Description:
alpha/beta; single chain; seven-stranded mixed beta sheet
Amino acid sequence: MNLTEQAAAKACCADLYQSDLARLVFGDTLHPGGLGLTNRLGRLMDIHPGDWVADLASGRGSSALAVSRVFHCNVIGVEFGAAAVTQARDSALESNASGACFVRGDAEYIPLRAGRFDAVFSECSISLFSDKPAAVRQIADLLRPEGRFGLSDVALATGSLPSELDGTLGQLLCMTNALDVQGYKELLRDGGLDLVHSEDASGEIIKILDDVESKMGALKAWRSLAQLSDGQDEMLDKAPLLVSTLRQMVQDGELGYWLFVAQKPG
């Protein structure tokens, strides 16, 4: 895939994460576990007041704003989608969050100064990157010595992706190019970082699936009354079977959600 094709794919992905379907599945945080898991990741990263932190693929800014507020630190969110950056900036103004700011940029080609950050985190995003090793090497460059990188993402057993998820919906669920648990550990190690913690949070996927089931009927009724048809109706019709499939995959250990924290050597 050339650079033009990569940019088009990222723009498509950014638009997808602004869709009604994304809000149905993930809510405002766009990842399993919500802000509770974000704060858990922040504690594992040992973020201190006054630290400089980068949030890569920051979406609408919910996580960056929460980390800034909870840990009294400075957070710069980097997001590809223009609409999401605008929403994040508006949210920061509305909440008078002076410790968080947002820039539009590609999290695979990070527009931030190397060696400046005490911590970097990325939630449900690395799995979507086209060149994961290069991205992790850049993240290591961003960090100061002994700085920490927090990663939370979908983990998928090799060869277990159902054919019906090898497309838009799989991309929305961060599954299309997800690694298995060992793959993430090797990715961090090969990027020059030392793994200091890994944690299974797969139960958060089950919570999402339960929530989707409870909302599905209401969303379909709303879309029908509003006479909306933008290509998501077919996905909504398939949702009950997909929810069942995904739940079984979690139970079988083929699909999970994990937290990883790695440290740059001193």
